[in-house]
Amino acid sequence: MVKKRALSAFIVLGAGLTAMLGIVIYFSAYLLKNIPYNLINLQYAILQNLDKGLSASGLESIKIPFTNFITNVFAQISTFISQLSSKSVTLAGDSLVYGILFLFAFFYFLKDGPQINESFKHLLTFEHYDRIKLVIENGIKNIVFLQVVYAIIAVMLSLPLYFVLDLPFLPLILTCLFIVCFIPKVGPTLVYLPISFYLLINDNLFGSLIVLLHGLLILSTVDDYLRIRFAGAFELHPLMVLIGYAGGFMLFGVIGLIIGPILLMVTRELLIIYKEKNKN
C-alpha cells in the first residue's frame, strides 16, 4: 500500500512538474522569438542619441522608443497569455503525453540502467569509458560553477543601482535575480524588465532607462564575457565554445547553452581516443 501511494504521488508530481516546465519553455521560446526585434530598435535609438548624453533633449528623444519597447513587450506577454488560454487543451495534452513518456523513460532507466551502462562499457574500453565519464562530470561542474559566479557578480553589480533607486523589497529582488541567473541568457531579463517598467509607470524615466541599459549593456555583457573567459575550463578554444553555445541553442533551445559545450567536449575526447587507437 505504501509503495502504491508513493508511486501515485510520484506520478502526480511528475505530471505537474512536466506541465509547468512545458509552460515555462513555451513562454521563454515565445519571448525569445518576439522580443529581440524590439531590443534592436531600442538599442538603435539609444545609440543614435548617445552624443546628446543624458541631457533633457537626449532623454526626451529616447523616451518614445523606450516607451514603445516596454509597451510592446507587455503587449506580447498579453498576446501570449491569450494564445496560451486558447491552446490550453492542446498544451495540456502535449504535457500529459510528454509527462507519461518521461515517466516510462525514467522507469526503464532505473530498471535497465545497469544494462545500459554495460552497453557503453562494451563500446569503449574501461579506461576510455572513465575518460568520457570524467569529461561529462567536469563539463557539468564547470557550467554550474560558471552560473554561480555569474549570479554572484550580477547581484553585486545590481545591488548599488537598485539601492540608489530605493526599490522596495530589495532583498527579495536580489534573491530572485540570483536564482534566474541560472537560466542562461534570458534569466536576468525576467527581473530587470519588470523593474524598468515599474519605474516607468512611477514617472521615473531616468531610473527606468538606467535599469534597462544596465541589464542590456552590463549584465548581458558579463554573461558573454564569462562564457569566453572560462573557455579554458572546457579545454576548448574560445571560438569552439561559442560554436557550442550557438549550435546548442539552435538545436535544443535555452537548455542547449548547457548541452552544447558538453557535447563538444565529449566529441573532442572521442576524437583524441580515436587518434590514440589509430596512431600507427
TrEMBL record:
<dbReference type="Pfam" id="PF01594">
    <property type="entry name" value="AI-2E_transport"/>
</dbReference>
<feature type="transmembrane region" description="Helical">
    <location>
        <begin position="169"/>
        <end position="193"/>
    </location>
</feature>
<protein>
    <recommendedName>
        <fullName>AI-2E family transporter</fullName>
    </recommendedName>
</protein>
<feature type="transmembrane region" description="Helical">
    <location>
        <begin position="143"/>
        <end position="163"/>
    </location>
</feature>
<dbReference type="GO" id="GO:0016020">
    <property type="term" value="C:membrane"/>
</dbReference>
<feature type="transmembrane region" description="Helical">
    <location>
        <begin position="7"/>
        <end position="32"/>
    </location>
</feature>
<keyword id="KW-0812">Transmembrane</keyword>
<feature type="transmembrane region" description="Helical">
    <location>
        <begin position="89"/>
        <end position="110"/>
    </location>
</feature>
<keyword id="KW-0472">Membrane</keyword>
<dbReference type="InterPro" id="IPR002549">
    <property type="entry name" value="AI-2E-like"/>
</dbReference>
<keyword id="KW-1133">Transmembrane helix</keyword>
<comment type="similarity">
    <text>Belongs to the autoinducer-2 exporter (AI-2E) (TC 2.A.86) family.</text>
</comment>
<feature type="transmembrane region" description="Helical">
    <location>
        <begin position="205"/>
        <end position="222"/>
    </location>
</feature>
<feature type="transmembrane region" description="Helical">
    <location>
        <begin position="242"/>
        <end position="266"/>
    </location>
</feature>
